[in-house]
Amino acid sequence: MAKQYRSQVRFFGSSFDPETREIDVSLGTGAPVERWDYARREAYIEILSMDPDSVDLTRMNSGAPFLRDHDWSVDSVIGVFVPGSVRIAGGELLGRVKLSASERNRDIVTDLVDGILPSTSVGYDYDPDAIVESRDESGMLTRLLARWTPLEGSLVGVPADITGGVRSAPAEHVEGVDMEEFDTAVAENGERDLEKKVAERVAAELAAYQARCDDIRAAGRKLGLDSAEIDSVLAERSLTADAAIRKLVDARAERDARSTVSTRVDITRDEAETRRALTTDWLAARAKVQDVNPDAEREIGNISLELLLREMVPGSRGLSRSALLERAMTTSDFPLLLENVAHKALIAVNDQMADYLWFEKVFTRMDYNDFREHSTPWVGHASILPSVLEGAPYTAGSMGEGAEKSTAIKYGKEFQFTLEMLYDNDLDAFAAGPMAIQEAFIRTKSALAAALLTGNQVMADGKALFHTDHNNLSTSGGVPDVAKVNELWNLLFAMLDPDGSTAIGMQGKFLLFPGTLKSGIEQLYVPNRVLPDYTTEALIANIAPENRIAIPGMTGTAYYMATGRRNSARWGYLRDEGGLVITEHEEYKNDSMIWHARGVFGCHINTWGDFAANPGA
Question: What pTM value is reported for the model?
């Protein structure tokens, strides 16, 4: 998959709900956008298919982030897309964003809601094997992306392509294309008819789009308006050509009426922020932690790191490379830009090591306020809710602290951008540092969480987590089979409250085991499996495939089942950090810029009644 960015996404300010802090946003119509093919060295038109089957909304509807300038660091998260809200309606991709209430985002959110910052850019991946190409009579290449995945939305000050997203009509109603006929052709005649129909639809859309733009631009030029004013009207997709021209006439009349008023708009700050964002993307692509952003390539060009650095550092002419690097640390944005690249490297590693984050599904995240010993808050025991007679008082549940405790521990290491990396033009070597640290941190978290099971955490009653007195330890060890997996499920389902008087058990939801047991466990869940002659027992522990988890690095033959009940086990970072935190070290030494990568993490199991174990063979 290859990542792209597409600008001119609209907010609907009137939809903002101050109570929920949610606002509607249009993510575009897949309108034609001009791009540059560096391999072929030619311009082409890109169109995003708005067929619901072409767009994978899984990531967006799982709470995708809404960022500032495509910066994937924690501090740049402005909000999240409300899960389940992103959809295609009328040929347009729509969603709802829940905005952050944090102090650091207050001014940005205010400007966004007020319409001062209305523009965003969408980051998306596409499948290179699902591109339909065609050329018009002039030889202009058009590419329809028939399979693509939106990843995130970002707020930007100056959009890269202000007319992006403009469409004269929804894709489902393009003149001359019968969509039922289109679908039938695909089903009956295969890819050749599909390509023909898609080419016809692309041509019709391009013709309608180009005609609308030509009419509006011609009218704007006759009125003496500049390109920026014309483009701002072009960007309003809901306007017909006639309505857009009327708006241009009104704009000229309003300008004439303000003959004594200066209309100069200072966009220097926005341009500087846009330049920084594009430079970050340019550096990240060369560090191979994200795909190439064509806008960044056009802005920065094919230059060396040294030349980029000399452009950023005032008065750098005549400086040696060592002196240049040292001065860049205090007089330029270069350290901040490299820090942003490091954050992108961390995210790239997260995607590669998802198996090590198994505990995020089984445990509950509750971050730590500080480095002191912490326990999990709980409300007093209520196995069965008592009835309340008319006029009688309610029984209060006591609020207290759980008996099981843990402490958040700090882990970390430093990494550098060295003089040798500058000489060698080697950003790969720089990115390797934070990526290796992130990999180590993820493995550390997984090992700490797994050790609670394999090490049999000692609970507050002085007994091991898995103990016969806790009724959560199988008495028949051995390799997993139907009977033994069912036994774990029954232990959890039959669990009693601490008084031993009321059943509070839950079904097992997760099966946890070392990788060496995966083959045998998966065979238990083969559909229509034939049972051996000596048993008629059915598998009652219906664990979903994604919840049968082989824990990386786990050894031995023991295996475990967990309910996944909220707060049954806890994991967390230091509050407001959310993982590895990268900070620049103030001292320049050994011809190197230095950063510290710090991660604070802790975990513990709160209730033995939500975990059961078989000691294995």
Answer: 0.54
